[in-house]
Amino acid sequence: MFAAPALAASGPGAPGAGDDYFPGYGNGGYDVSHYDLALRYQPSDDHLQGTATIVATATQDLTAFNLDFALTAKSVRVNGIPASFSQDGLELTVTPPTTLREGEPATFVVEYAGKPSTVDVGGISPWVRTADGALAIGQPEISSWWFPGNDHPRDKATYDVRVTVPDGTEALSNGQRTGRSSLAGWTTWYWRNAEPTATYLQFLALGQYEVRAGKGAFGQPFISAYSENLGELAGPARASVERTPEVLDFLAGEFGEYPFEAQGGVVPAEGLNFALENQTRPTYSHLFFQYGSNVSVVVHENAHQWFGDSVSVDRWRDIWLNEGFASYAEWMWSESRGTGTTQEIFDHYYGAHPPDDPFWQVLPGDPGPSNVFHPAVYDRGAMAVHALRNAVGDAAFREILRTWVGEHRDGNGTVEQFTDLAEKISGQDLDELFNAWLFTSGRPDVGARTGVPEGAGVRSGEVPAAVAEIDRTHRLLAEREG
């Protein structure tokens, strides 16, 4: 559940969740359980009209509260009664007509409209208008440009999203498609995301797409969509994303039960230069497929369904728990396919970055807000995971991963909680290993206590076949920071 910052017994909720990397993100004083979003979008002028109904519970006696929102609110009701409100930047401050009592359920209804691509707050404008529609895809911020909410991974909720667009335009979102209807030249698409989801992992892709629906892994609904404008990249995109069920079968064998009710993927033809692990339906830039099929990125984004989506960061400084493990999943996939063992890939990256490389100055366990998506978070982060495996052995490593995702399912976790779990299961003191890999500048030394075997980096002059694809994938994944 969402843990609000400590506040007085009665008063306004905090305008932030207390995250030291992004202090203004999220809010205190309430916990959202469900978002119902009714949207109408016109691609020709990027006009979005919406009604958001937010089901929440006050976590204190609440005289006022904030919602994170960048568009213009037209009206706000709290428990059916009009409420006063004001907006400043990303903060929509609402004063309910009466104090909301701690523990009592409440409903907030916000009506709004605007052209999201024209809205810039503090130099940030993540909504992307395309030639045939739009993309609401981003990390760590995107939700505020299309619905009001509590925009921090600690406050997860379920979603119903219905999007009305002109006939012939597709509207894609998370979870299961529960219906589609048409009236007077407009089509409404209905989506339900039934598992707790962080706000930034809820997405929209609007435009001209070929939508495929069938059965995926574990007998679940599998929905994939490809822009009709992909041209020569359509083939390699399909050759990659359509392997998602196979990838999920593999990952479930490593991490445990798949935590969600649906699966798939979306590939737009423009407007995106990275991939994002949108819950149940990752979205991939067309650029990943410019050299042919790319299953590494499919593995990476679907590994996030466990590491990042089901178990989300408690603070953005915990990003290693997302990117280090998703990157290591690519190494595990490579080993299973005979294109390079995890140790061979470790040796490559350890040797590719000499001790004086600035790469080693970024700390995966606390990279800083400007380096959340630095390549070191991915590659040094994956090396840290492998070093742990070397130190504790395969059996304990597997138990650590499965216990972590099982105990924290639908919740959040910190790096400290993970390291404590690793020590508990392995029965080892791992402080030296984690400090060297996550919290100390410089390349970790060779040694059993750091998980770096003798000969690392010089074991072979040959580069594992998987590395080229992994490198291309990670360069693009880090582009979101730009």
Automatic annotation (TrEMBL):
InterPro entries assigned to the protein according to its UniProt record, in alphabetical order: Aminopeptidase_N-like_N, Aminopeptidase_N-like_N_sf, Peptidase_M1, Peptidase_M1_aminopeptidases, Peptidase_M1_dom, Peptidase_M4/M1_CTD_sf
- Alphabetically list the UniProt keywords: Aminopeptidase, Hydrolase, Metal-binding, Metalloprotease, Protease, Zinc
**EC number per UniProt:** 3.4.11.2
Metal-binding is among the record's keywords: yes
Keyword Signal belongs to the record:
no
Peptidase M1 membrane alanine aminopeptidase domain residues: 291-437
Q: What molecular function does GO assign, one term? A: aminopeptidase activity
Residues passing through the membrane, by range: none
Recorded hits in CDD domains, A to Z, give: M1_APN_like
Known catalytic reactions: Release of an N-terminal amino acid, Xaa-|-Yaa- from a peptide, amide or arylamide. Xaa is preferably Ala, but may be most amino acids including Pro (slow action). When a terminal hydrophobic residue is followed by a prolyl residue, the two may be released as an intact Xaa-Pro dipeptide
> Which Pfam family is one of this chain's hits?
Peptidase_M1
Q: Which cofactor does it need?
A: Zn(2+)
Aminopeptidase N-like N-terminal domain location, by residue? 33-201
Task: Give the main EC class.
Answer: hydrolase
- What protein family does this chain belong to? Belongs to the peptidase M1 family.
Q: What is this protein called?
A: Aminopeptidase N
Organism annotation: Saccharopolyspora griseoalba
